[in-house]
């Protein structure tokens, strides 16, 4: 499925999504939480772009910015060449049809008062699709995601977690989207059910030519599903490569530590574990220079004074580290 | 010391823990048995509803109505602790058996400093002066890797990160040097780099205080990191037990095989993941015989009766008719 030189479907340019912080009795603006801080990358048509990182790294905010659920402070999000942040009117309606979402929490994202027919057809109703056409589409979709037509008159709470995730997927597919932001779609599921949903996502991608932004903290799930993978740390994109290259030859020390921390990874990859000391710093007061320098075993003076930009360390392999070449020698 | 085989520290014998529910009885733990030797480590792995957490709560005497241990024994150091009253079990819990839960935020009391809580755990079982208890607490916090423990001892739990709180829980659990430490999903709520720190800490502490570990988790990778032996549970029963290497390298039970084959880390990109058809059966209507039967690709008529533990000839136990009973 991977198309290494495929055409760009969605591109982020210098995206910054900040949250204002208020303090004191007058709730004065006292600073900014830079959840997404100057992130740029492109997602190609038909690929699965995996986005990994630990809690607070900004991966969810990045996804929500694309869905226009957050309002970025600066930057552009180009979808098929047009900035969706500047879009309005009919263009916005089309974008809402083309970009859909699948979330982790099906309890929170599926209205308990709507039956499956209304849940799955809701997007179509908003788009103004007539009743008959809507019903036909919903009946087709329920089978596409592996549920049955007789389920359509039932409610989400009557289904198991895996089935609810299928309902969420049918809902996302209703408007025939081109691009889906999937934020931790399988992390609440048991292993045996998780694999069913992952297979379904692969099948649907082939069948409908979908492009995924797959956001997850589970590194093995991301490796399995993604064509290319981006790693975020404290709001910044710190490494980007094909899944093969990133997992075989991580060049940013943080990525190396992250991959080595996966339980059982020493046995599987033969690479020694890198134990990081301390916690992720607060995103409110991130370190100067490289955000990872406070936990990095390779950090030197330059890491505090100069922020390493994402640079191409190998063809199509980008890393934000002053010492990406040394980091490789160290890991080998 | 005689040459006789060491008596297990913990022996769970045909344990049945049931919950009365609307519409019937949920047999959450339905006849399980296993041993844990002093200083050894055993992982219980299973998906939701397998009964793994109810097993740990049963051992700790924390089953409350409508739940009840209806049959079986929990032998700890040769004594059945399943039938003890609350006062008797309290003398064991926190002193000889300690439990660390998944979520340290709810396990720690938000209105007391972490120091106060560790001191309370210490003084509940040991006669210590206030000064001695404080000193011991600081050294415990240092042992679990909390930086500047003299200062952090006076902090409240909400001021600490998830990883730090889990370190405090471990300090509390180890305060009285228990013979058995039960870890119930200890790292599930943590990020992967913090999880690696905590698992490393538990390994290190085990060597220093020689406590036995019973680890409850859904993550086979975590079992591989910490344990020598593993029990695989499904539908309230044990499907397979053996050494971690045996079970993960060459699973025998069809359930274990299917479970491992559905792990993305074990499959190459582009290949399809194995799936287990259907879902875990309704706990109110568990099928008779093997609970995995309705989803098992190799099920046959015999499976309607319980296969019981069977030895495939390499020292492990598999509850499946595919293997001949020996001995």
* CA gyration radius of chain B, whole angstroms: 21 Å
Average predicted local confidence, pLDDT of chain B: 90
- Low-pLDDT stretches of chain A: none
Structural class determined from secondary elements of chain A: alpha/beta
What is the CATH level 1 assignment of chain A?
Answer: Alpha Beta
Q: What low-confidence regions of chain B span 5 or more consecutive residues with pLDDT below 50?
A: none
Please, what is the CATH homologous superfamily of the largest domain in chain B?
Answer: P-loop containing nucleotide triphosphate hydrolases
CATH topology of the largest domain in chain B: Rossmann fold
Tell me the overall shape of chain B. globular
How many β-strands of chain A, per DSSP?
A: 12
Largest interface: A-B, 43 and 38 residues
Structural class of chain B: alpha/beta
Any idea what the shape of chain A is? globular
Q: Report the major sheet of chain A.
A: 8 strands, mixed
- What is the ordering of alpha helices and beta strands of chain B? EEEHEEHEHHHHHEHEHEEHHE
How many domain units of chain A?
1
Q: Kindly give the count of domains of chain B.
A: 2
CATH fold-level name of chain A: Rossmann fold
Order of strands, main sheet of chain B, comes to: 6-7-8-3-9-10-11
Quick take:
The complex is a heterodimer of chains A (332) and B (327). By secondary structure, chain A is of the alpha/beta class. Chain A has helices spanning 59-66, 89-98, 106-109, 116-126, 131-144, 161-173, 191-208, 219-225, 243-248, 253-260, 265-269, 301-305, 324-331, and strands at 8-23, 28-44, 48-52, 74-79, 82-83, 99-102, 179-183, 211-215, 228-233, 236-242, 311-314, 317-319.
Write structural notes for this entry.
The complex is a heterodimer of chains A (332) and B (327). In chain A, helix 4 packs across helix 5 (131-144) and helix 5 (131-144) crosses helix 6. Chain A has helices at 59-66, 89-98, 106-109, 116-126, 131-144, 161-173, 191-208, 219-225, 243-248, 253-260, 265-269, 301-305, 324-331, and strands spanning 8-23, 28-44, 48-52, 74-79, 82-83, 99-102, 179-183, 211-215, 228-233, 236-242, 311-314, 317-319. The mean pLDDT of chain A is 91. In chain A, the strands form 2 sheets. Chain A has an 8-stranded mixed sheet with strand order 6-7-8-3-9-10-12-11, with helices on both faces. Chain A has a 4-stranded antiparallel sheet with strand order 2-1-4-5. Chain A is an alpha/beta fold and 332 residues long. Chain A has one domain: Rossmann fold. Chain B folds into 2 domains: 10-96 and 180-271, Rossmann fold (3-Layer(aba) Sandwich), CATH 3.40.50; 102-175, no CATH class. Chain B is 31% helix and 22% strand. Chain B has 11 helices and 11 strands. Chain B has helices spanning 52-59, 86-92, 104-107, 114-125, 130-143, 149-152, 162-174, 192-209, 220-226, 244-249, 254-261, and strands at residues 10-21, 24-36, 41-45, 67-76, 79-80, 97-100, 180-184, 212-217, 229-234, 237-243, 317-318. In chain B, the strands form 2 sheets. A 7-stranded mixed sheet of chain B has the order 6-7-8-3-9-10-11, sandwiched between helices. The mean pLDDT of chain B is 90. Classes of the chains: A alpha/beta (332), B alpha/beta (327). At the A-B interface, helix 7, helix 8, helix 10 and helix 11 of A face helix 8 and helix 9 of B.
